[in-house]
Amino acid sequence: MKRAYRIIAPVAFALMSACSILPKPDPSDVYRLASTQPVSQGAPVSWSLRVTKPQTSEFLDSPRIAVVPNGDLISSYAHSRWSDPAPVLLRNRLLDGFQRDGRVTLLSTDETNLQADYELGGQLQAFQSEYHGTAVEVVIRLDARLVRGSDQRIIASRRFEVRQQVGDTKVPTVVAAFGQAGDQLNWQVVDWVVAQGNTAAKH
């Protein structure tokens, strides 16, 4: 027994020593996608809507806060990240936009198996800040698709692109610009979906 202890003790000490020299993960500031969109009380529609995560590139499908410092180089801000991957952030932001707008009240997401009359999805092409010389702007580009739930037929599609100037290069300022761009995108997408859904519901 003593011999076993003499063998195990050095091994345990070595493992503890190894653990103590392993690099510790860098702490990250975690940001939400804020909204200042006001709550409105529009006339409610009769149809239901399912909001899904847009498809996107492998790089954007992560919590990294993407930045294009020059040309075709894409990177991310160090020690900072989103609370969720970009597609989830945008889906939740759009869902909140519909709830604040008040016209589409029968809402669900792709996190449930609930059926809906229409489904909003698409392709997230850009969700990043971009440098143009000394100027910085946030770019959100969404190729949106509105699909009929019963047969998955596309009834409308449109590209939305929002650009928001950033006051400086500090991450909190960039994040605030993402929030402003998200508000602009929400207004456009919500109005478009309501118009297209109402038109399709008449046929």
UniProtKB/TrEMBL annotation:
InterPro entries: ABC_trans_aux (IPR005586)
Alphabetized PROSITE patterns for the sequence: PROKAR_LIPOPROTEIN
Gene3D superfamilies: ABC-type transport auxiliary lipoprotein component (3.40.50.10610)
Domain (ABC-type transport auxiliary lipoprotein component) ranges: 35-189
Protein's name according to its UniProt entry: ABC transporter
Species of provenance: Pseudomonas orientalis
